Amino acid sequence: MRKLLKGILIAGIIVVVGGVTSIIAINMKPDPPVVEMDQARLALAAARNIKAETYARETFEQARLLYDSAMACWNRENSKFFLNRDFSGVIQMAKLSEQTSALAAELSLKSSSTIEATVKTKLKYLSKLVDEVNVLSRFPLSPRIMDRLAKGKLALSEGQAAFAQDMLVQSNLKVTEAETHLEVAHKEAYKVINNYFGHYNTWKSWKEQTIRESKQKKITSILVDKFAGKCYVYKNGQLTNEFDAELGKNWIGDKRQKGDRATPEGLYKVVDKKEGHRTKYYKALLINYPNDEDKKQFNAEIANGTLSKKSKIGGLIEIHGDGGKGTDWTDGCVALTNSDMDKIYKLVQNGTPVTIIGSAVSLDVILNDKKQ
Amino acid sequence: MKINILIHFLHLFNFYQNMKKQVLLVVAVLAMVVLTTSCQKVPQEQIDAAKAAVESVKAVQADLYVPAEYAALQDSLQAVLAAVEIQKSKTFKNFDAVKLQLEGIMATVPQVTANAAAAKEQVRIATEGEVVAINTILEENRVLITKAPKGKEGAAVLEEIKNEMTLIETAVAEVNQMLANGDFLGAQVKAKAAKESAMSINTELTEAIAKVKR
Predict the structure, then answer these.
(1) Does residue B163 sit at the A interface (CB-CB below 8 Å)?
(2) CA-CA distance, A17 to A7, in Å (whole number)?
(3) Which one of A116, A200, A231, B82 is at 20 to 30 Å from A23 when CA atoms are compared?
(4) Torsion angle, CA of B10/B15/B16/B21, rounded to 10 degrees?
(5) ipTM value > 0.90
(6) Residue A208's pLDDT is what?
């Protein structure tokens, strides 16, 4: 009995000592970084919710890597004997991840609102630019400019569609692409048209001179307005007839050499009246292109190298029939419908002045009219 | 004195010999309790399966088509992985709750996958519908071009319109290619823009023709 009591006593001592040792050991065991890891995870989720993966990609990726590293470190520490565990590294990384996530969230908000504002501003600016280019595109422009314009308009449309779907990055890319195309199209179109209208004052004086001479000399004079696509007949300074005219395919440019399909501008006169077998365009009024001024200009271009020495100045510019096709199709001549040709043919004779001008109206007036 | 101590030690030794079995029994019971409560195994297979399942959801582009559901799934997985470490840090580990959470993730995955597939299919069908609509409008535009006025400006405008039509046709080909490649969201945006442009040409031509008729 005594032995049994002693046994129980010793077993009890062992249990108590073991228990106390365990309690002390458990108390000495470091606390796991639960709170820090929770906060880091929540911060990461919050950053993801405001699209930090898209708008603050690098910073978000850093935060995610820090969180993953903290988890890996926690896992490593857990595999050690419990008294040897040290979670300070885990806590440090978790806190850093939380801070980086917060930074990513902040950057994401800033970046997305900046992109949104940029895209909105660009969309507004480009819509205005498209309106302006649309006005300019009413002029015959080079295929290169037309291609830029069409590409720009389509990219703008894609940018708008992406913006409507809250795809800001894609929208920004498309809008930037549209901006490049449309700005080039606008600049080049404006340059071409502005260059063309650079001669406006000369055209204005030619028109006035033509009407004045018609009045003073009591003669019939012809005025061709390339931009308006009209052929006017003046008798004694009074406008008597107005016909629709079709021109060379490249009517907007100055005629510089043979084959450029441009209609020349200048002060000319009828030098021959052709009909029957003498013309293939119903009836024709041959003018004296090239005149002295055209020859001077052509020779200057050959001399300064802007035209090749092999270039030829061309000729055979006429006001002829077979017009009414609804497009500018000639090689540089002025085409009227056959019925209009009949009328003008009767009104003119060899020596009748023919003045060809780019436009009787200034570019400002034209642009304002078109905008309205 | 020395003999007394020796006798006492021998008594103790005898006592130890007699009680050895009982003490070992107590220690064994204690060890069993500690082992059963502290050495519960980490459900690694279930964890790996859950990770793979979440990856498989990303593979069907759930992050693009059902981003909120995908994010929730990712958050749940991260929370479970943290819960695993919490249990591993404890002296008395218990993964029962973790196992339940993992089962929850595994149950959600097919739903998110199905939702992503449905959303994707919806975008595909809608975009294919847009392509059909664009082609119809383009066909109509081609007829309208033949009826459009071809005055001095008309010719320039028609030239521009033809240019735009060519680009829209190219865009439609790109949309079809994107659909074939599975980029439905990109295709959708491109198709919407192309349709918008085709519609704007249609309106311009219709108005120009109506103006001439008046």
Answers:
(1) yes
(2) 15
(3) B82
(4) 150
(5) no
(6) 96
Q: Which residues contact B172 (CB under 8 A, 6 or more apart)?
A: B131, B134, B135, B138, B191, B194
**pLDDT by residue (tens digit) across A2-57?**
778 888 888 888 888 877 776 776 666 778 899 999 999 999 999 999 999 999 99
Contact B164 A138 (CB under 8 A): no
Residues 180-239 in A contacting B (C-alpha not used; CB under 8 Å) = 228-229
The pair of three-digit structure tokens given for residue A87, joined into one six-digit string: 């979670």
Name the residue in chain A with its Cα closest to that of B22.
A7
Integer Cα distance of A170 and B41 in angstroms? 48
Residues of B in contact with A26 (CB under 8 A): 91
B20 reaches A (C-beta below 8 A): no
Cβ A161–B189 below 8 Å, yes or no?
A: yes
Q: Measure A292 CA to nearest chain B CA, in Å.
A: 30
In sequence order, what are the residues at sequence separation of 6 or more whose Cβ sits closer than 8 angstroms to the Cβ of residue B202? Answer: B137, B140, B141, B144
Classify A245 as helix, strand or coil.
coil
Q: Distance (Å, rounded) from C-alpha A279 to C-alpha A277?
A: 6
Nearest-angstrom CA–CA distance, A40 and A104: 13
Nearest 5 degrees, angle CA A351-CA A284-CA A267? 40
- Computed over every residue of chain B, the mean pLDDT equals 85
The conformation of residue A198, written as its DSSP 8-state character, comes to G
3-state secondary structure of A223: strand
Q: Residue A227: helix, strand or coil by DSSP? A: coil
Q: Which of A75, A78, A167 sits opposite B189 (nearest CB)?
A: A167
- How many alpha carbons fall within 13 Å on the CB side of residue A269? 11
